[in-house]
């Protein structure tokens, strides 16, 4: 009973850690981008600008413009004012642009407003731009409220949530020299899949792993499950971070520091594999704690991946859903299997303490 209380205390401490570290939604969203049902896409750049590439990042939350030409390209802001400039001399920001302040508004404030999908027809009367250099290189990235959907669902989506709807079109103006171009895009509501098949996979996996606790030699199969769980979550985490297209060092730092609960689960799980293969108490406790941490943080914390159509993941969305399903089933399965083994084999505590005394 003492051992079970110790295990319960360890899991309870893990639960407190998960709750304190998790964001209000999607705890495993390392990049800060939550799954959604709104797909943003670029339709065209008209007229075409040779040497200029415009693409969306983070499900439309960010925009990247690359200019390899000999003339600077100016990005127009929400009031058609000069906002950003990129070219041979680097990246510049107009400190007098209203878009600078708007793009620094917190996510909570933005979510309560209506998405701006197109600039006004007439540019606001503004003072001449005051450019200041923000970096070198030929690419600039920024958060743009025009290219993503914020706020509540539009009436058409509320009326028919099971159908696909084009909910908005957006425009971003560009200037190069005396010429002008427009990037056109659209935001489409795409209903997400059912989470039921993935939950069934989690349930079957959980029962199978708990069943391993009934085996005479429970150590090797449970250690294999721990290794699988850690490997799946590592790949899942890197898939989320790689979707941002940020430098590799930035991705790795974000994974380790932004997903500290998952990182702790990996460390505890890896340390538990050896003792678990030998059928030792410490391996069981470590497997239970690691399984619970990863299931609660990387599994339940990322539950919306299962029923959202747009997922921030570098690979196929089904891969992210499979990772979440496996993490939930395997993680909670390990915790329950450890409890089962400890109840069926109370001699483990005596053996462990005897070895420690020696």
Notable features of this structure?
11 helices, 358 residues, elongated, 10 strands
Unreliable segments (pLDDT under 50, ≥5 consecutive)?
A: 13-27, 106-125, 353-358
Order of SSEs: HEEEEEEHHEEHEEHHHHHHH
Strand order of the largest sheet: 1-10-9-4-5-6-7
Radius of gyration: 25 Å
Which geometry do the CA atoms define? elongated
- Count of individual helical segments: 11
Which oligomeric state applies? single chain
Instruction: Give helix % range.
Output: 40-55%
Largest sheet: 7 strands, antiparallel
The average pLDDT is 85
In total, how many beta strands?
10
Structural class: alpha+beta
* Percentage of β-strand residues: 15-25%
Count of separate structural domains:
2
How far apart are the first and last residues' alpha carbons, in Å? Answer: 23 Å
Written description of the protein model:
- It contains eleven helices and ten strands.
- The protein has 358 residues and is an alpha+beta fold.
- The protein folds into two domains: 2-33 and 192-357, no CATH class; 42-189, no CATH class.
- The strands form two sheets. A seven-stranded antiparallel β-sheet has the order 1-10-9-4-5-6-7. Strands 2-3-8 form a three-stranded antiparallel β-sheet, with no helix packed on it.
- α6 runs parallel beside α9 (281-299), α8 packs antiparallel against α9 and α9 (281-299) runs antiparallel to α10.
- It is elongated and about 80 Å long.
- Residues 13-27, 106-125 and 353-358 have low confidence and may be disordered.
């Amino acid at each position: 009973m003492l051992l079970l209380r110790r295990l319960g205390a360890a899991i309870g401490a893990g639960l407190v850690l998960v709750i304190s570290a998790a964001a209000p939604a999607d705890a495993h969203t390392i990049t800060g981008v939550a799954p959604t049902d709104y797909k943003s896409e670029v339709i065209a750049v008209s007229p075409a600008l040779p040497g200029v590439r415009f693409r969306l990042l983070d499900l439309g939350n960010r925009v990247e413009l690359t200019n390899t030409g000999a003339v600077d390209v100016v990005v127009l802001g929400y009031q058609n004012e000069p906002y950003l400039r990129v070219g041979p001399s680097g990246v510049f920001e107009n400190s007098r642009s209203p878009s600078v302040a708007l793009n620094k508004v917190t996510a909570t404030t933005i979510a309560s407003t209506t998405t701006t999908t197109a600039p006004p027809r007439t540019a606001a009367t503004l003072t001449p731009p005051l450019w200041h250099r923000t970096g070198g290189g030929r690419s600039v990235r920024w958060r743009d409220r025009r290219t993503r959907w914020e706020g509540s669902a539009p009436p058409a989506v509320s009326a028919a949530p099971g159908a696909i709807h084009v909910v908005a079109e957006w425009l971003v103006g560009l200037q190069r020299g005396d010429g002008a171009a427009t990037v056109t895009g659209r935001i489409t509501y795409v209903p997400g899949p059912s989470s039921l098949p993935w939950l069934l996979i989690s349930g079957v996996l959980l029962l199978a792993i708990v069943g391993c606790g009934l085996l005479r030699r429970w150590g090797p199969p449970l250690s294999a499950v721990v290794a699988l769980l850690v490997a799946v979550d590592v790949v899942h985490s890197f898939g989320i971070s790689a979707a941002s297209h940020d430098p590799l060092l930035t991705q790795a730092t974000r994974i380790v520091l932004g997903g500290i609960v998952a990182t702790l689960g990996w460390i505890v799980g890896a340390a538990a594999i050896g003792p678990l293969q030998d059928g030792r108490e410490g391996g069981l406790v470590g497997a239970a704690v690691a399984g619970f941490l990863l299931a609660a943080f990387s599994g339940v914390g990322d539950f919306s991946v299962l029923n959202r159509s747009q997922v921030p993941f570098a690979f196929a969305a089904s891969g992210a859903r499979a990772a979440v399903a496996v993490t939930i089933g395997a993680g909670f399965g390990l915790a329950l299997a450890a409890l089962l083994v400890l109840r069926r084999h109370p001699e483990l505590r005596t053996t462990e303490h005897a070895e420690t005394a020696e």
